[in-house]
Amino acid sequence: MNTRPGHGYEPAGALPGRRVEFRPHDLLQAIRVPNVRKVFLGGTPGAAQLTPTCLANHLDDVQACSGSASNGYNPIERQAAISSKTEYVDTNPWYCTTICTPIIEKYCVYLDGIHITSVWAIYLQNVLAAALGIHFESTSSTYVLGTP
Questions:
Q1: What pLDDT, on the 0 to 100 scale, is given for residue 122?
Q2: What are 14-73's pLDDT values in tens digits?
Q3: % of the chain beyond a pLDDT of 70
Q4: Are 88 and 82 in contact (CB under 8 A)?
Q5: Do 38 and 86 touch, CB atoms closer than 8 A?
Q6: What is the pLDDT, as a whole number, of residue 1?
Q7: Is residue 80 within 8 Å of 53, Cβ to Cβ?
Q8: CA atoms within 13 A on the CB side of 109
Q9: Residue 16, CA distances (Å) to 10, 13, 46, 56 in order
Q10: How far is CA 114 from CA 41, 48, 65, 138, in A?
Q11: CA 88, 94, 99, 102 torsion: positive or negative?
Q12: For residues 73 and 77, what is the distance between their CA atoms, to the nearest angstrom?
């Protein structure tokens, strides 16, 4: 399946022969709500392999499951956001330095090749809030959103 920007692909469950184009600019232009702040969060860099399987096969070598920090969609996403007057937040630094490792601190980052774990998502809540310029405090069961 070719999912590179500007190329069609057939998503799971699509009718045979129905191709979908990745066109973030068109999507962002279609969102027209007065006085609403539009923010485009950059895509999550994918894991090099299926994380749980890879980690199970490399118990003594987590780095064997690491992948490249490049995300081919980021430049296209960023340009789409800029051209449609939408804020862009690059999420790559939340996952990668020069490589994307499946374990950061004590957290398993990826659930599979493209989805993150719920514990990593919760860990990132303050990082996201800071990127959006909002104040966010959390306790074990309560979330409070407000402006700084």
A1: 92
A2: 556 665 566 777 778 787 888 888 898 988 887 777 888 899 999 999 889 888 777 666
A3: 74
A4: yes
A5: yes
A6: 37
A7: no
A8: 24
A9: 8, 9, 26, 35
A10: 15, 9, 14, 26
A11: negative
A12: 6
Provide the CA 102 distance to its chain's centre, in angstroms. 14
In which residue are the tokens 């999912």 written? 3
Distances (CA, A) of 112 to 6, 27, 85, 105: 25, 26, 33, 18
Can you tell me the distance from the alpha carbon of 86 to that of 84, in angstroms, rounded to the nearest whole number? 5
Token pair belonging to 67:
């992948």
What type of residue is 31?
I
Q: What is the pTM of this model?
A: 0.69
Q: Which residue has the tokens 């409070």?
A: 144
pLDDT given for residue 28 in this prediction: 81
For residues 38 and 28, is the Cβ–Cβ distance under 8 A? Answer: yes
Q: CA-based angle 14:19:23, to the nearest 5?
A: 115
CA 138, CA 114: separation in Å to the nearest integer?
A: 26
26-35, 74-83, 85-94, 96-105 — which is least confidently predicted? Answer: 26-35
